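agent> fetching stored inputs for the calcium ion docking request
agent> found them:
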Amino acid sequence: MVPSLLATAGGLLLLFSFSSAQIRGDNIAGKCNMNDGFGLYCPTTCGVADYMLRYMPGVDKDLEDLQEQLDIIANLTKEADETAVYMKDSAASAQKSSQPDSHYKKSSSMLDDVARFEKTIVTQEQQIIDLQNIITSNERRMSDLKQLSIQLQQKCSEPCKDSVEIQPLTGTDCQDVANKGATTSGLYYVKPTKATEQFLVYCEIDSFGRGFTVIQRRRDGSVDFHKDWIQYKEGFGYLSPDDTTEFWLGNEKMHLLTATSTIPLVLRIELVDWQGIKKYADYTMFRVAPEVDKYRLTYGYYFGGDAGDAFDGFDFGDDPSDKFYTSHNGMQFSTFDKDNDKYDGNCAEQDGSGWWMNRCHAAHLNGKYYQGGTYTEKDAGEFGYDNGIIWVTWHDRWYSLKETTMKIIPLTRITAGGGQQAGVKQLAGLSKK
Ligand SMILES: [Ca+2]
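agent> prediction call returned; pasting tokens
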């Protein structure tokens, strides 16, 4: 840079040295000495001097400007030099600190990455916002769950206690309990006269002061009624204070409740089908014999109801003796392990229940629970007989009922309570379709 500048100014420098000579010559400017040395056709020394003197001021000015510019250039050059030195030093120290090639490549690829990332950042920002919203709602839910978990932990840490409410009143049966002032349906202890100890029953007490002792309940199929002799004897399933469970009170208790009563009892059977229609059937002087007589069922007569008298047997049309062989009055109780039926085979085993089997049945309230009602021979398993919850005088034997209730009440109270009229009204209410 500096040498090339000097090269372009070469001519001027020649003039400079010449003019210096002239400045030197200024001392003799007025008294020019003739000199033959320049020849004939060349300017004389004085002519040159005149010429020089004439252009001298402009040249000097140019030279001064030039000098200034040179100074500026020199300054710039110096600064440039210093910058260069500084940069060289920086480069040197950078080189020392890292491998320049890989560093550069790294930086360059990083710049590419940054550009790419900047693009994706824009689209990802919205996604981030969405995710943040999800996180916020999840956090809220987690907080709710935590709260719930704390509540559960507190609940679980409480000592276990029996929450079933058992009413304090007792009696010989539920009507006795109601007579003593009980007005709420629920669990009560009863002790029939012949019983050696009290036992728990579900009492259905209505607004007429009637107390039904419930001996059987089907409602949702939650309890398997395929049980043996001992289980049917002792009872199974669950008693609940709010009538939400299924059970068989037990043949022994049924015997105790029915055998010792001085007042004739009515067995009321209430049925609900899968359309929610309710029907009932009443039987007077209902009794269950002691175990020595295999808990034989006896009753006086069909006392009414809109479900029909299925206990009396049914003519299925298969055989003239159908009705005779499907009646239940006077039948002993059978289970798969105690065959007391009138059939060569084992009705209780074939139908998977315990019941007062004949050959076999027209009523079968301990049958298999079929969701929805209708079922077929195929559904009935290996024997293929009608084994559902059956009351054939209402629905045929291939229709299994949704709910059943068997309950007992003294005959004197079945239509009593709010008077004869009220009792009749109540019966009408139960039979509504
Ligand atoms: Ca048999």
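agent> quick read of the result: Residues 1-33, 35-44, 417-433 have pLDDT under 50 and may be disordered.
agent> awaiting further instructions
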